[in-house]
Amino acid sequence: xxxxxxxxxxxxxxxxxxxxxxxxxxxxxxxxxxxxxxxxxxxxxxxxxxxxxxxxxxxxxxxxxxxxxxxxxxxxxxxxxxxxxxxxxxxxxxxxxxxxxxxxxxxxxxxxxxxxxxxxxxxxxxxxxxxxxxxxxxxxxxxxxxxxxxxxxxxxxxxxxxxxxxxxxxxxxxxxxxxxxxxxxxxxxxxxxxxxxxxxxxxxxxxxxxxxxxxxxxxxxxxxxxxxxxxxxxxxxxxxxxxxxxxxxxxxxxxxxxxxxx
Length: 262
Ligand code: DGL
Description:
The protein contains 11 helices and 10 strands. The chain has helices at residues 16-25, 47-63, 74-87, 99-105, 117-120, 123-133, 146-151, 158-174, 190-196, 207-220, 241-247, and strands at residues 6-10, 31-35, 68-71, 92-93, 110-115, 137-142, 178-182, 202-204, 232-237, 254-259. D-glutamic acid (DGL) binds at residues 10-11, 14, 40-43, 73-75, 116, 119, 147, 183-185.
């Protein structure tokens, strides 16, 4: 048993989609979430910069005593997870676009992936695609501008809708039957995506699978927390921490949001 918190980081509010799944699957765990919004978007940065930011976030969470780290960001995972696993003594859970289930479920043989430039150009994304989806066609689309809009609190704005339409229409016209959300910010766009996609196209996001994997790894390393009625969830943001609070509206329990000069 280990009552230290689970550490989670992202370039901003995207990883909250993952945090919600972790909280519901692991109700006895405390969590500590770091939103590096000041440096968003990671997806437009060079691989070396993404690695440096991932190291900085990891070391901050480890200093705070986290027992496991969830890299709740596809861009950071695909560019930094091997390095993190090799250099730090805690288990890491990474997030990659869920190409495998989409490829297995596809009947049209065409799957769309909406992700950041940093993810789509990474070696890990290409090896995963080769290993799990070589029998289907993957249509890649960079979601340029979407993370910025979400970080400005404009996930449901007309500007966001226009960009989404521009990005999904060519994939729909090409015949995709699954759309993989390869960025943890994008589940915040699901209401708009559902309106813009024709019926029958499945949206795939990996939050639930990540929460299951987090449970398995904690169990395997004997790191699960003891059962408790009260858990603490601390959120730190180095930009507009009020935005983080808005994304957590309606969440019950001991949730603390703090600005961090980081
Ligand atoms: N939420 C992130 C991801 O999953 C990062 C997006 C960004 O900062 O560009 O890729």
